[in-house]
Amino acid sequence: MPRRVKDHIDISEYTSLDDLIRYLETVRDNLPPDCEAELKIRGDDVFGKRLTITYFREMTPEEADLEARYTETEDASIEELRRKLDDVPFKMSAKGR
Q: What is the C-alpha to C-alpha distance for residues 62 and 11, in angstroms, rounded to an integer?
């Protein structure tokens, strides 16, 4: 089963109510099933506020390919380091007892 990733859509605070309603309906109708969509107000008075819709989606083939490449590299590197550490001789000092 492919891993899902969390994606988001930002809506600025400078939108008319009618445009916002149409935009939200369009977003809702085009979201994937079982996406667990959430709507939040984010930001502050200094940098501005925005509505953010977050949802889960399946990874694209490109994302899955990159993930597979990096995951394989990390796993191999960790196993190689583990083997090297197992081969390092260790003597306990008198202070360590």
A: 27
* Strands across the sheet containing 48-58: 4-12, 48-58, 38-44
User: Among candidates 6, 19, 17, 11, which has minimal Cα distance to 52?
Assistant: 11
Residue 2 corresponds to which amino acid?
P
Q: Quick one: how far is CA 75 from the chain centroid?
A: 20
Q: Please spell the DSSP secondary structure of 30-48, one letter per residue.
A: HSPTT---EEEEEEETTTE
**Look-up: residue for tokens 């506020």?**
49
Q: Rounded to two decimals, what is the model's pTM?
A: 0.57
**Whole-number Å distance between alpha carbons of 6 and 80:** 32
Q: Are 56 and 36 contacting, i.e. CB atoms less than 8 angstroms apart? A: yes
Residue-wise pLDDT for 67-79, tens only, equals 877 766 555 677 7
Domains of the chain, residue spans: 4-87
